[in-house]
Design a protein that fits this description.
Structural class: alpha+beta
Shape: elongated
Order of helices and strands: HHHHHHHHEHHEEHEH
Low-confidence stretches: 1-32
Number of strands: 4
Distance between the termini: 81 Å
Number of domains: 2
Strand content: 5-15%
Number of helices: 12
Length: 342
C-alpha cells in the first residue's frame, strides 16, 4: 500500500471502471478469461507500490543493481509503480499503440532511463531493473494461476513479455540516442572551452554566409589572439593557461547573442561571428570584451594579466567567402600585433 501522503498519478492510463463482469462498456474478451483477468489487473494496480518495493529489494539483494544502495526510498522506486500500473492496464486491455515509440509510456520510460543515468545507473542496471520487474510480476501471476485456464496463463505471459520488452527497448534506444548526441556534440566542440572547434566553426560560418547573401545582410568576423600567451604558460604553468582560455571563452559566449557564433580555432586563437551587423558592430564588441577582461584581471578572477589582439573582416566589404574573410581578419590581427610591438 502507498505510504500516507503519497499518491500515484497515471495521466496517460485509460480509467478502467471497477471490476464488474456485467459492465458492457469494458472490452471483456473471452468470457472465461475476463473475470479472473480483471481481478488480477485490479490487484496489480492496488499493490503497485508493494510490487515496486519487491523490485527494489531484489535489486539490492546480492548487489544486483549497485546504484540502488546509494538512493533513498523514493529514488529507489523511481517510476516503477507507474510502470506496474500501466502493465496491469495492458494485461486487461492490450493496445499495440501503448507500446509504440512516441507513446506517453515510451516517453515516460525514456525520462526514467535519463534520470537513472543521472543517478549513476549503467545501461545494464536499468535493463536489470525491468527484468527483475518481469520476475516479480510473473511470480504474482503464477501464484494466481489456479484462477486461470492454461491458455489464459499463456496469454498473460505474452502480454507481460510484450510490455517489459517494450520498456527495455525504449531504455536501450534512449541510451544510444543520448550517447550518439553526446558524441556528435563532442565532435563539434573544443574539449577545453566548449566552443565550436575549427572545423565546425568554419562550416557554420559558411552556412551563415549563404544566409547573408540570400537576405542581403551583413556579417562581421572577429579573429582574436592572446598576447604573449606562451609567457603565461612558461611563467605560471599550463593549468593557469588553461584557466585563462576557459574563462575568456566564457566571456566570449556571454558577450554574444544566441544567433552569433564563437569558436576556438587552435591554441590561443579564437573567432567570433556576429550576424546581421553594421560596420561598427565588431569594434563595439571588442570594446565590451576588453572591458570585461580588464574587470576580471582587476578582481583577480583571471590569474594573470591578459590582453588580446584582434582583427576583423566584414561581409560583403572584405570578402564573399569564408577563406577570404579569414585571410583579411588574420592579416589585420597581425598588423595590430606588429603595431603594438613597435
Amino acid at each position: 500500500m502507498l505510504p500516507a501522503g503519497i499518491s500515484l498519478r497515471f495521466p496517460f492510463l485509460t480509467q478502467v471502471p471497477a471490476t464488474n463482469a456485467d459492465d458492457s462498456s469494458v472490452d471483456k474478451g473471452p468470457a472465461a478469461t475476463f473475470e479472473p483477468l480483471a481481478r488480477l489487473a485490479d490487484e496489480i494496480r492496488a499493490e503497485a507500490w508493494d510490487l515496486a518495493m519487491s523490485v527494489v529489494e531484489e535489486g539490492l539483494r546480492d548487489d544486483a543493481i549497485p546504484p540502488l544502495a546509494r538512493l533513498g526510498r523514493i529514488g529507489q522506486l523511481g517510476d516503477m509503480p507507474t510502470f506496474i500500473a500501466e502493465l496491469a492496464e495492458h494485461l486487461l486491455h492490450p493496445k499495440p499503440e501503448r507500446l509504440r515509440r512516441g507513446s506517453p509510456l515510451a516517453a515516460l520510460v525514456r525520462d526514467h532511463a535519463r534520470e537513472r543515468e543521472a543517478l549513476g545507473f549503467a545501461p545494464r542496471d536499468i535493463v536489470t531493473e525491468f527484468l527483475i520487474l518481469r520476475r516479480v510480476l510473473w511470480r504474482l501471476v503464477l501464484d494466481r494461476s489456479a484462477d486461470f485456464e492454461a491458455k489464459d496463463v499463456f496469454v498473460l505471459e505474452e502480454r507481460l513479455h510484450d510490455v517489459i520488452d517494450s520498456l527495455v527497448t525504449e531504455c536501450v534506444v534512449a541510451y544510444f540516442d543520448r550517447a550518439t548526441s553526446e558524441l556528435a556534440y563532442k565532435a563539434r566542440h573544443d574539449a577545453l572551452t566548449d566552443l565550436l572547434n575549427h572545423t565546425s566553426f568554419t562550416r557554420e560560418f559558411e552556412l551563415e554566409l549563404e544566409r547573408a547573401k540570400r537576405y542581403d545582410s551583413g556579417l562581421t568576423l572577429v579573429y582574436l589572439d592572446f598576447d604573449d600567451f606562451k609567457e603565461i604558460n612558461d611563467t605560471h604553468g599550463h593549468q593557469a593557461g588553461d584557466r585563462v582560455l576557459g574563462r575568456v571563452a566564457e566571456l566570449l559566449r556571454d558577450e554574444l547573442r544566441r544567433s552569433d557564433l564563437a569558436g576556438r580555432m587552435g591554441g590561443d586563437e579564437f573567432a567570433a561571428l556576429l550576424v546581421e551587423t553594421d560596420p561598427d558592430t565588431g569594434e563595439t564588441f571588442l570594446e565590451r570584451l576588453n572591458a570585461r577582461i580588464g574587470e576580471l584581471v582587476e578582481s583577480g578572477e583571471l590569474p594573470v594579466p591578459v590582453t588580446l589582439s584582434a582583427g576583423a573582416a566584414r561581409y560583403p566589404d572584405d570578402g564573399e567567402d569564408a577563406q577570404a574573410m579569414f585571410a583579411v581578419a588574420d592579416t589585420r590581427l597581425y598588423d595590430v600585433k606588429r603595431a603594438s610591438a613597435a
